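ugh finaly. both done.
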Amino acid sequence: MARKTSFICQNCGAVSSRWQGKCEACGDWNSIIEEASGGGIAAAVGGKVARGARFALSGLGWQEPIAPRVATGIA
């Protein structure tokens, strides 16, 4: 089975069939990386992507203490 690759811009998510130095969609340089497509875990289970369980996020009820300053003697 041939391995198919895609080149995806990490800035805007545009997909290309070949590597380019500059993304044609957003104009960002050196943001395109190669990713294998058509394989992996999702392809092994029939293309379905497993979803994680949702849970509520709780706020931080404390504040980190401010570290004391150290005198260095440098002007």
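ok and the 2nd:
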Amino acid sequence: MYMAIGSRITVAIGVIAICLAAISPADTWAAEPVKQAKKVKQPARTHASAPAPKATGQKFASAETVGKAESCFGEAPTLDWLTPDEGKAGDRVTITGTNFGEAACLRGVSFGPGHPAQFQQTNNSITTIVPSSGKKGLVLLTVTTASGENSKPFLVK
């Protein structure tokens, strides 16, 4: 009679151990040693009497001049239309829209993922050339700025 109870307990403990092993990731059982960063000896710092180099950036003296600084963040670009909306490699395409921002804020134009194109920006439009490395068929012509991106379908012939 005691033999049957003992074997039931052994089986129950074995089932619990198997269940715990199945649901626990393997990397929790053994920890990797922590890599320690090597310390680099820094040379002794000396105080030189030479004047510090002048900064070459724009300095903001007041709240009025800070507001006039170029900002690349705002609303995502809006693409109103593409002229033409289809073309072959080497064709010029004009993208008309809003919120393109300053020229320095425009991050890129692409004809599908991984197919960037050269571009030139004016006030409300971007002129680009269909890249020769792109795939043929219907792709998304995407304009990316610091504030976001927007796309329109374009047929590459």
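summary for the 2nd one i guess: DSSP finds two helices and nine strands in the chain.
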